Amino acid sequence: MLKKLNYWIQNLEPYGSPEEIGVIQLAWLGDSVWELHQRLRHIHFPLKSKELHLSVVNEVKAISQSNSLSQIEHLLNTNEINLIRRARNKTKRYPKSSDPTIYSRATGFETLIGWLFLKDPQRLSILFEYLEVKTN
User: By CB atoms within 10 Å of each CB, which of 12, 91, 92, 131 scores lowest?
Assistant: First the structure.
């Protein structure tokens, strides 16, 4: 199941130069990639549309993204850690309902996903597989 889940990522070719894209734009892209990944994870659950939606929303919240980052941090290289740090430092505004530390970590996580999606889809697939094993 894991291989099939990440099949769409594994076969992507690196695209463009993410170095020329701002960290906030990479976070925006990463957020959508992460949500699509979560939707693909939940698509085979025999749930109603609203239940599927709520399941995915729970996975894409800042606290969940921050927790996912915690699970993979030890696997990250120096460049990836520096990218996350840049994104966290760039985050100045937070929703009133969110803890600033958690929100900035989530932004860092989304930025990493966006960057890897463009630069190294195979690496992204490996990290997604690792997270999948950790959550099951």
Answer: 92
Per residue in 59-83, pLDDT (tens digit) is 889 999 999 999 999 999 999 999 9
Q: Which residue has the tokens 């930025």?
A: 111
To which residue do tokens 């769409």 refer? Answer: 8
Question: Around Cβ 71, how many Cβ atoms within 10 Å?
Answer: 14
pLDDT, tens only, 31-59:
999 999 988 887 888 888 888 888 888 78
DSSP string computed for 110-131: HHHHHHHHHH-HHHHHHHHHHH
d(CA 1, CA 136): 12
65, 105 Cβ separation under 8 angstroms: yes
Instruction: For residues 64 and 69, give the distance between their C-alpha atoms in angstroms, rounded to a whole number.
Output: 9
Tell me the catalytic residues. Answer: 31
Closest by Cα among 37, 40, 52 to 110 = 37
Structural domains in the chain, sorted by start: 2-135 (1.10.1520.10)
Is 80 exposed, middle or buried, given 0-12, 13-18 or 19+ CB atoms closer than 10 A?
A: buried
